[in-house]
Amino acid sequence: MRTKQQRVKDSVKLVLGVLNDLDPYGFEPGSLAPSDEYDPEGIPMASILLRTGEITATQVDEIWIKWFDEPLSAAVPASKFERFMRDLNALDLPAG
Q1: How far apart are the first and last CA of the chain?
Q2: Contacts of 55 (CB under 8 A, 6+ apart)
């Protein structure tokens, strides 16, 4: 059985995969930016997903505004944001 710490770490990794695929500002984490570029945003997103089983666009935007002074939904085309939200909520997070 996974420890809580390992479950959180694995969940953050999954969330960051979806976030890095979106790469809203073209940072290309790992090449043009540090590989942990989106950690400050991904960690609270994973926390919400682990706690509630889903995350809303409003919650994502609130997290994004804290770091980038704009909602993520305004930083990317609507179709990309919708796909991001769908992919984020479809993640198969590790069981506790």
Answers
A1: 8
A2: 45, 48, 49, 85, 88, 89
Residue ranges per domain, the chain?
4-89
pLDDT, one tens digit per residue, over 33-91 is 666 778 899 999 999 999 999 999 999 999 999 999 999 999 999 999 999 999 999 99
Token couple for 92: 């198969």
The amino acid that residue 56 corresponds to is: T
- Check: pTM over 0.85? Answer yes or no: yes
SS3 (DSSP) at 33: strand
**Exposure letters 54-89 (e unless 16+ CB within 10 A, then b):** ebeeeebbebbeeeeeebbbeebeeeebeebbebbe
